[in-house]
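User: Fold this one for me? It's Ubiquinone/menaquinone biosynthesis C-methylase UbiE.
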Amino acid sequence: MAVTPAVRAYYEQDREHDRLRQGRGRWELWRTQDVLRRRLPPPPARVLDVGGGTGVHAEWLSADGYEVELLDPIPLHVERASRVAGVTARSGDARRLPVPDASVDVVLLLGPLYHLAERADRVRALAEARRAVRPGGLVVAATINRYAAVHDTVYLGHYVREPERQAAHAALADGIMLSPGRGFSAYLHDPAEVPEEFADAGLPEAEQYGLEGAFWLIGDVEDWLDDPERRTLMLDAQRSLESVPSLLGVSSHLLTVSRRDD
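Assistant: Here's what I get for Ubiquinone/menaquinone biosynthesis C-methylase UbiE.
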């Protein structure tokens, strides 16, 4: 899959820039921040943000004091990210990182595994991340859950449309999500797959965090996100449930974290 012409065309519409900055997408952003701020080494550690898009995570990481380099295969994303204060941005492929061995403290893959349909490519990207981090450094990857398409189409009211319903159920079978009419394709992981891929890349004992839990599916989620007090309560609630194995598949996205042990 990688960056196919259809995926490239989708991202070149500049729809990614605001996805996590508005609406219920903010819940994914804030939960990602919540987990990473607990797991990352203190600043000024060096973070390689692979597939970092227009810099939505690089921006807050840089503001927190991290030294951030962003890599992305979409020229529009690189150009936008290069405007973020304190962030270096350039073109790059997760499977062939243009950095020396053991040169960073953290590698973030908060998107690349979505577009690698072949398991060998995903393991290669994780192995490259392992190569790039120093001993003791962290590799963090985001994945889309296998069940997210069914949940999302029901939430949005699109499940009544046969093409979208069929696409969501096809993804349940093989993980390949072909979104009708959007030009967007993605690989959706079963949660149990991800630690196995980490282990095959030399990253054992991976820990998993469900980002959104069931809260992304409640009808008034944006009202909760707009209210700082209720948002704090919702963050506290999901933090208490984030690593319960039986609940991992409810989230739209997972974060998986492992440490290079040599």
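One thing worth pointing out: The CA atoms of residues 10 and 183 lie 6 Å apart.
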